[in-house]
Amino acid sequence: MNTPILAVEHLSMKFGGLVAIGDLSFEAKRGDITALIGPNGAGKTTVFNCITGFYKPTEGMIRLGGRSGQQFLLERMPGHEITAKAKVARTFQNIRLFSGMTLLENLLVAQHNKLMLASGYTVLGLLGFSGYRRASAESIELAKFWLEKANLIDRADDPAGDLPYGAQRRLEIARAMCTGPELLCLDEPAAGLNPRESNALNALLMDIKHNTGTSILLIEHDMSVVMQISDHVVVLEYGRKISDGNPDFVKSDPRVVAAYLGVEDEEVEEVLIEVGDEQVIEQFDAEPDREHGPGASSSMMAGAVSDTIGHSDDRGERITVSKRASKAQQVDDREARAKAKAAAAKAAAKPVAARAPKSAAPKARTVANTLPAPRGGVADRLVLIKGIGPVNEKKLNEHGIFHFDQIAAWKKADIEAVEAYLAFDGRIAREDWVGQARKLARTAAKPATKPATGKREGSR
Ligand SMILES: Nc1ncnc2c1ncn2[C@@H]1O[C@H](COP(=O)(O)OP(=O)(O)OP(=O)(O)O)[C@@H](O)[C@H]1O
């Protein structure tokens, strides 16, 4: 029992330069309800499309273990064989019923293959060939069975298009179940349902889980559905798996909270400022990469997929997620920095004598031209120097540096002293803060030119 029915191994799917899935591996156990969750654009439907043969993955394997012991490599099979031989059925994000047909007819159409086989692919079926009649009667029985399970039997003869939305969703599932699937893939079955319809859906899915051998793979945004009925949850963000476990584990995984439920960028920024990661903060300050990263919105429900997913392509090119793009990555970074900060604090708390012998203690380095306060009470905007962000500007001010001319006058020893307290390594020289400051100091020193037109101040 509980052996994997589905094993997804190192699955990648690229659309041109866009990596929709990057090196994804997970398993779904037989008889379980496995949920695949993640923000919009995380790649969930693409995973379904790879499993059901709509897409051929760029890399990776999708192994399905049949009840009979047969193994299927789905990525190598055409879509119709995935349904017929491997017995994988699916529903779609958008309802795809024959709205003009009755509920019963919809469920009979789903059994078309079985009926065609029984007819011998000839007119014998129409002529009342007994094998066909038996198959036809069985199909009707099966359809009725699933209409009852879906609580739709009373409307068997109504057009499917007349059903309320939630009932149409259940009809789709009933239709998929009529094909006798081993794996049922449901793409957002609870989308647009009201709470009563959601409960009816949960009941139907639990019934399938307990009373058929069918395993369920579920894409769902509705967390009340996911957390109530899933045995196992796999979380995607930007095509990568960021968490995998039972609902309780996933629910409290900080990476999931950040990625899926959303963390305000300001909150992440606050932490980074706290730990003094200027470089990352400067990435936040920059214009968002609207083409690849999330837009201005911090809601991860609206995040776009990046083509910078950690993944190495067939040319050996290494692609990484930008820190701003991945909320889960931000959580990892935050944790790593918090650890580093704690370690630094611990080291600092040790008695000085324990850290270094007195004779070896370095002489404290100081900057020569510091000021107690900005001249005239107004500091220059040091952030105009490329490489200085608001955090470093604040630190420089705290150390008595307020003006471009102060930086322009730095000698090697001053630079070393500044680098020591900004914890930089060669960056001041690399970014030529002194040269930049000289130019800015010259501009600042120029007297403001009078308007040549003689127009009054404020006129346009
Ligand atoms: N056929 C395609 N061609 C190009 N890009 C595609 C194609 N199919 C999907 N994508 C892109 O792949 C990314 C993942 O899309 P996918 O639909 O798998 O995400 P999702 O997690 O299912 O999102 P949602 O929750 O909104 O349905 C998206 O950026 C999407 O635009």
From TrEMBL:
<dbReference type="GO" id="GO:0015188">
    <property type="term" value="F:L-isoleucine transmembrane transporter activity"/>
</dbReference>
<dbReference type="GO" id="GO:0015808">
    <property type="term" value="P:L-alanine transport"/>
</dbReference>
<dbReference type="GO" id="GO:0015192">
    <property type="term" value="F:L-phenylalanine transmembrane transporter activity"/>
</dbReference>
<keyword id="KW-0067">ATP-binding</keyword>
<keyword id="KW-0029">Amino-acid transport</keyword>
<feature type="region of interest" description="Disordered">
    <location>
        <begin position="309"/>
        <end position="333"/>
    </location>
</feature>
<dbReference type="Pfam" id="PF12399">
    <property type="entry name" value="BCA_ABC_TP_C"/>
</dbReference>
<dbReference type="GO" id="GO:0005524">
    <property type="term" value="F:ATP binding"/>
</dbReference>
<keyword id="KW-0813">Transport</keyword>
<feature type="compositionally biased region" description="Basic and acidic residues">
    <location>
        <begin position="310"/>
        <end position="320"/>
    </location>
</feature>
<dbReference type="InterPro" id="IPR032823">
    <property type="entry name" value="BCA_ABC_TP_C"/>
</dbReference>
<feature type="domain" description="ABC transporter">
    <location>
        <begin position="6"/>
        <end position="263"/>
    </location>
</feature>
<feature type="compositionally biased region" description="Low complexity">
    <location>
        <begin position="442"/>
        <end position="452"/>
    </location>
</feature>
<dbReference type="GO" id="GO:0005886">
    <property type="term" value="C:plasma membrane"/>
</dbReference>
<dbReference type="GO" id="GO:0016887">
    <property type="term" value="F:ATP hydrolysis activity"/>
</dbReference>
<dbReference type="InterPro" id="IPR003593">
    <property type="entry name" value="AAA+_ATPase"/>
</dbReference>
<dbReference type="Pfam" id="PF00005">
    <property type="entry name" value="ABC_tran"/>
</dbReference>
<dbReference type="GO" id="GO:1903806">
    <property type="term" value="P:L-isoleucine import across plasma membrane"/>
</dbReference>
<protein>
    <submittedName>
        <fullName>ATP-binding cassette domain-containing protein</fullName>
    </submittedName>
</protein>
<comment type="similarity">
    <text>Belongs to the ABC transporter superfamily.</text>
</comment>
<dbReference type="GO" id="GO:0042941">
    <property type="term" value="P:D-alanine transmembrane transport"/>
</dbReference>
<dbReference type="InterPro" id="IPR051120">
    <property type="entry name" value="ABC_AA/LPS_Transport"/>
</dbReference>
<dbReference type="InterPro" id="IPR003439">
    <property type="entry name" value="ABC_transporter-like_ATP-bd"/>
</dbReference>
<dbReference type="GO" id="GO:0005304">
    <property type="term" value="F:L-valine transmembrane transporter activity"/>
</dbReference>
<feature type="region of interest" description="Disordered">
    <location>
        <begin position="440"/>
        <end position="460"/>
    </location>
</feature>
<dbReference type="GO" id="GO:1903805">
    <property type="term" value="P:L-valine import across plasma membrane"/>
</dbReference>
<dbReference type="InterPro" id="IPR027417">
    <property type="entry name" value="P-loop_NTPase"/>
</dbReference>
<keyword id="KW-0547">Nucleotide-binding</keyword>
